[in-house]
Sequence to fold (846 residues):
Amino acid sequence: MIGAWFATDYDVAPTAIELPVDVASGRDDGVCIVDQVIRGTGIVGRVSGDYGAVGLKVRSPGVATRVTVVVHLDEVATRWWSDRVRPPRTAPELPRLVLIRAQGELRGAALLCRPQGLRRAGGAKATVCFDLTAEELDGDGLLMVELAEPPRPSWVAGRLAARSALGVRIDQISVRAQRHTPAGACEPDPTGCDLALLAPNPPERFRLELTPVPPAPPLPRSPSNRWTRRRPARAGFKVLRAARRAGTRVVAEVNKSRPGPVRGVHAVDLLTGVPVAVEVVAHGPGGTDLRLTGAAQGPVLLGLEQPDRGLSCRIVATP
Amino acid sequence: MWLNANGKELQWFLESASVYWEKNLPRPTDDSVILVEAFHQDIRVNLRNLAFANAIRRLRPARMVVLTGVEEQWRRTLWSGFDVDKVRGVAEAFGAAEVIDVWDRVRRMNTAAAEDPALIAYTDATYCRLAKVPRLPEGHRDRPDYRLRHAYATRLFELYQGLFAAGNVVALVTSHVDYDQWGLAVESARRARVPIIHTQQTGCLKAYGLFPQADTGTGTFREELTRQIGDVFETRVWPRREELKPIAELVAWRAKVNLGRPSWWRGGVTASVDLNNPAERARLRSHVVDRLGFVSDKPVVTVFNHAVSDALGTNRELFPSLADWFADTAAYAAEHPEAQWLFLDHPSQALYDSTGFFDSVAAAHRKARHVAFRPSATLSKNALWSLTDLGVTVRGSVSNELPAYGIPVIQAGWSEWSSCGLSTVVDDRDAYFKTLEQGITAIRDGVDLVTEEQVRRARLWLWLYRSGTDVVTPLVPQWEVWPADVLLKTMRATFRHIEADADPLFTAVERMWTRREPMLTRTDFTP
Fold:
């Protein structure tokens, strides 16, 4: 059987870690496999390709478990991305959507859009929880967590960053014996963009709130030739970036996006890539009530039919 | 690369080198000559040739004649920074009596192109490499650039034959044995029955030798070498497998975590493998198959494309060209959905192909769901090992690497190690497709295609390649001692402060030279 000769006499078997598991460093004993992930010291690791996976050796508890994964889009992540993807210099930063897969199955998704400040952008963090049955984390106890590319229907073109997982941090992976509440039930924060995510098994009816946000300016790219790499040139670029950020903010203030009633919403099931029908039920001062009329098996990505980079969505339960 | 060295550092290096070699080389008493080529731009390549040649000169005093120069097309495609004067300076510091600018002489010759099949073969391979095309274009014989290449080959051959004609050449030391400027020198040396030393661009000092006594004259230089390497492996290394097992295991572990890698081996953190057993492999596989649109429970055959214009026709191969092999294998794959086929491009393909060959083959099979085409670096080695049930290559290093960890490989041609029994080397095209079919059937039936003996042989080859035939000497710093200033400074310390007595370079070369062995070895392999 292939794999029987993978080990040599000098390989040391990784130590399986016991529950409760909180892995927050790539150098922890439990981190035994990395696939296109660069191990970190204060974080589990950072994805270096279109997909990235981390394998943890967890001593099988023999009971159902809840896994919590914290992913984070920070400044370095965007720099890694722009240096590899080399987007056009005028293309604004776009939100990232990554699928979280474990044990070969889709478990959730994270929409990461950095909040834009006056001087710089903050980090976007997302926590994804999912449950595993006792059989899924059995015997060898290898828990594989992967950040993966989502399906991309035509309407997301220009609204989601290409190669979404590239550069994203996996800050922490926790495993606990399962509690009684189902995973993914917590109320989400505003997404910071005109897209939103519904966790698997969403309520049939929910409310979409819109608020204005400052749109993102283009991302910096690391200078690539020996003249632009020098310190005076870099200082100049920094000034230009600040001016561009301020300019983007001024233009957005003048043409401010106004959250109005939502006319239509696109939706796609991220497990199958199939569109999901959404119906607008009611408009109210607090937001628009929507209802999924089609079936969805996995998390659902929602997007306003009229793209607007100055709006942020938030999903709340209908009162 | 030549130009990146600090001028002062280079000057100190040259001064210390010339003092060192002046005192360490005996004066020749006759007119014998050692020919050393210096056509490569990288100083590390030339230093290996010069050091080896000087080690021979300690045994057999001779004048050193260095062959160098650069032709326009070589400069345009590969070596924009080639500087003949710097080559001359380094060669003279190493005690060269004469430095010949071969291309300058060739440009001044006016011999017409000759219809010698050997010359045409070298012209074809060089033309493809320099134009970065996988195959010769239509009507190539009438193209002015091809005609010029052909004329150059004819003149080079004439010039080289003239150098060997006097009968006073002791040896030819060369870093390459392919293409016109090197290959024709090798061809001339073989015809003149002169020993050829082929230094390798990796590790510390690695070199192979083809001596006239062992040259059957029936195949290319590399064919002769493959056979002789197989003999040494079978008679000197394999019988010592029990004694060598602990160290072979250590080298196998180091190769797995990407330590001690050859210079051309894939680098970076995605090149280290963490998988240890079939269960871990299966778990990662369940993730990786989805990325390619595959399923876990069907065999995955990984086909490793080679750099398509690299040294065409220089060893035994089943297909007319590397591109034919790849395209024909892809066509076969498209009609065989009983397996899933992953076609990986070569990591350095951009240096060898300007025609988008890989993408054109991928486009031709876009509709086949069981076939995927990917650039090599998009998969980590962990992912690759979890996925691959059967590897396919012509002469790629995966045919050593994968069997060392129990993954079977089929080779559609010969490589340095292909006669050491690591992989399944097939003899003709029909057998190739039949072996593929049998391999897939065996995987579906759960039959192991790799024997324990093959794994042991592959690990022993890893040891032989990276340790047994790599001579550690301060006179040739490891390939990774770089950039140029660091290398020059290291070598300056050697020349100034290390005594030459019994340097491993001299003892190892003496052993190889006097016994006419096909490879330079770190220790004495004789029982």
